[in-house]
Amino acid sequence: MDNSTEQLLVEALAPYRVTLEAARPDGGRVLRLEDEAGGVFIRRLVRQMELDDRLLLTDVVDGIRRDLLVREGRVVSILATRLNAELKHFAAV
Question: Checking CA distances to 44, which of 21, 25, 70, 84 falls within 20 to 30 Å?
Answer without folding.
Answer: 84
